[in-house]
Specification:
Structural class: alpha+beta
Helix content: 10-25%
Oligomer: single chain
Largest sheet: 13 strands, mixed
Shape: globular
Strand content: 15-25%
Distance between the termini: 84 Å
């Protein structure tokens, strides 16, 4: 194999479509090189020989000088990959080679690989290799928009040039493949991870069999290896962030999701109403999940809501929202789906942290796995934590106070609120959930992604989230300072950005760039003339090329089917002289169409098609959480009577909605109308 064949084969191993949007690490071993060359009959010595020869057209002498020359104008040569990746692979190989070397002796390792005397001292021009690492980051992130994966040029340790290849060796391929199972065993949540110290403890505990001793030792806090440790944790957190909840345990694939508490507080009534929602990065099944406790004593239905969230869990026995206070938060809860494919957990914890659900698009307060920095939060704490928690709250928090909640909490649990936490020193060792995060992250949230990588439609761009930031960190888009919401860490892209423009997002502390990412906003997009996705018949059997004339479906694409005209009456059944009654959430908010105009000063929650004998109700509100009935005075007594009549007096003539959460809301309206 010549140099470019080796280069492209190694590059394809790491940069490929299935890595789109994910972080790429160039972890290279002698075994990997041997496996790559095996198909062509090449071995490791062939790779070293190709490295020494270099790519065609390189005329200079010296390994690093050849690597630099290979970069010159490479994109004008229509190459698939940067031609210096094989050199970078060699540098990573040297960082991981074993032998009778000093612990931090890098250059003798590199010379040994090349068949030279293992002398110390920097390899000629090695100090300029950082230019290649930075160019690889630019190519993967900005030029390719993350379509083949995103490489971050990260250095660790005080010797910057050596730190670049060292940063690629912190996790082996075997360890990376084992991480999903460790995440599942440790009850880690990719949608709300804990602080780094908590992650380190959990991985050291649950990864004893899968992780190397070197990795386990790094997870322990030591000053000598703090930079290595921080880089390792950042890598692990990247893997956790990309994890969709799928893991294999005991040769069985399962999907893991988390159960998270959601809280509505009524300080006047001294009541906390707590429910359970599922959060998962995995795609929800088309049908609702039917969940069972481990002892099969109770069952629940779980329906998709939005993003990573489900609706509140519904009890199958009475179709009511599950009261989370019925469970033992101290020991945790585990539920499994009827088919055994899904496992949802509420992790055991003596302390629960709640923040505003606004950033998640949820009402009231939601549970998170770490306290926010300089932001308000609430705590639910078990009796056993009160002494230390109270001391920490009084000394290290602003506005810390205990709330008098007499209804809605499990026994021996108490509720607190704080305006902000100023320090975690007193409590983070005992209760890691109350530790601050030290890993600053810049993430893209929401938006409509186009294909793979970081391409988005211009009409639906993502928002930017700065996690664990401080007031000194500023976010820029193509060198333009962005205004963000300090309380949430959310930043919006400027509205006047032209389409088809590469956007470079940077989080800076002064002149230092701490984090960066890029994206591209697309305005004009043409559907491909041919769809390569597999087609299936109506029974779910995959069609072959010989079945080109058969009816088939692939997602929303359907072929060879004659569609009948759409019958809009199946959406809202209106027949003959039926009327549509639009009902709002306040007494008197009712309009009968077509006899009356549609309302402009209030929003309908229900559309009721009513015939002579029966009627059907459909939800038409904009947001389920904002659609609860509201008690108010109505001066139009005629409208008030009509509102009560359709909701209460005609309740047995109106068929309720099918979905459990809508049925609950409909019953709520009927009960309110009863007393109007």
């Amino acid at each position: 194999m010549d140099y470019l064949t080796w280069n492209n084969s190694i590059a394809f191993h790491f940069f490929k479509p299935e890595m789109a949007g994910s972080t790429v690490h160039l972890y290279v071993t002698e075994k990997l090189i041997t496996d790559i060359g095996q198909e062509s009959g090449a071995d490791f010595s062939d790779f070293i020989a190709a490295i020494k020869t270099g790519p065609p057209g390189v005329t200079r002498q010296g390994l690093c000088v050849k690597a630099l020359q290979s970069r010159d104008n490479w994109q004008q040569r229509e190459l698939d990959y940067p031609p210096y990746i094989a050199y970078l692979a060699l540098f990573v190989l040297a960082a991981g080679i074993e032998g009778t070397f000093a612990a931090h002796s890098y250059y003798p390792r590199l010379r040994t690989l090349l068949g030279e005397e293992p002398t110390t001292g920097q390899y000629p021009s090695f100090n300029r290799m950082s230019e290649l690492w930075e160019d690889l980051e630019k190519w993967s992130d900005r030029d390719k928009s993350g379509e083949l994966g995103i490489f971050n040029s990260t250095s660790i340790g005080k010797r910057n040039h050596i730190g670049l290849p060292l940063a690629q060796t912190l996790l082996t391929e075997e360890e990376r493949r084992a991480l999903p199972a460790i995440f599942a065993a440790a009850d880690l949540d990719p949608t709300s991870p804990p602080a780094e110290e908590a992650i380190a403890r959990l991985l050291a505990k649950h990864g004893r069999k899968q992780l190397r001793k070197r990795t386990l030792d790094l997870l322990k806090e030591t000053r000598d290896s703090e930079e290595l440790r921080q880089a390792l944790l950042e890598w692990i957190i990247d893997e956790l962030h990309d994890w969709d909840g799928t893991a294999e345990l005991s040769d069985k694939k399962q999907i893991y999701g988390m159960l998270r508490l959601c809280c509505q507080l009524d300080s006047t009534a001294k009541r906390a109403t707590l429910s359970l929602r599922c959060s998962t990065k995995h795609e929800f099944p088309e049908d609702d999940l039917l969940l069972f406790l481990e002892d099969n004593s109770r069952s629940f239905s779980c329906s998709e809501y939005s993003g990573v969230w489900s609706l509140p869990l519904i009890s199958e026995s009475d179709a009511k929202t599950v009261a989370a206070s019925e469970f033992d938060w101290l020991r945790g809860v585990k539920m499994r789906s009827a088919d055994g494919k899904w496992c949802l957990k509420l992790p055991a914890s003596p302390i629960r942290v709640f923040v505003s659900g606004d950033t998640e698009g949820l009402p009231n307060f939601v549970e998170v796995r770490q306290i926010p920095t300089q932001k308000p939060f609430y705590l639910a704490a078990h009796q056993e934590c009160l002494e230390l928690l109270t001391i920490w709250g009084e000394l290290s928090c602003q506005g810390f106070e205990k709330l008098q909640i007499s209804d809605g909490l499990p026994g021996e649990w108490h509720f607190f609120k704080a305006a902000a936490a100023c320090s975690d020193d007193l409590i983070k060792d005992k209760y890691p959930i109350l530790a601050f995060s030290t890993n600053l992250r810049l993430e893209l949230d929401g938006g409509i992604r186009l294909e793979r990588g970081n391409k988005y439609f211009k009409f639906a761009p993502p928002k930017l989230i700065l996690l664990a930031g401080s007031e000194s960190i500023k976010v820029y888009c193509n060198n333009q300072l962005l205004d963000g919401t300090k309380s949430t860490g959310f930043y919006e892209l400027p509205a006047d950005i032209p389409a088809e423009t590469k956007l470079l997002i940077e989080a800076r502390n002064g002149e230092d760039i701490i984090r960066r990412c890029s994206l591209l906003l697309i305005e004009n997009y043409s559907l491909p003339s041919e769809i390569s996705a597999p087609q299936f018949d109506r029974f779910g059997h995959r069609l072959t090329r010989a079945d080109n004339e058969s009816a088939g479906v692939a997602g929303a694409l359907v072929r060879n089917v004659d569609f009948p005209d759409f019958n809009f009456n199946t959406f809202l059944p209106i027949q003959g002289k039926q009327r549509i009654l639009f009902v709002g959430k306040e007494a008197g908010q009712i309009a009968t169409w077509p006899g009356e105009s549609l309302p402009t000063d209030w929003e309908p929650v229900w559309a009721i098609s009513k015939g002579r004998h029966r009627g059907q109700v459909m939800f038409c509100g904009t947001n389920l959480s904002d659609s609860a009935p509201a008690i108010s005075k109505c001066r139009n007594r005629k409208k008030m009577r009509e509102w009560k009549e359709i909701l209460w007096h005609d309740r047995k003539k109106i068929s309720p909605p099918d979905r459990p959460e809508l049925k609950i809301l409909w019953n709520h309206f009927q009960q309110e109308a009863k007393y109007v």
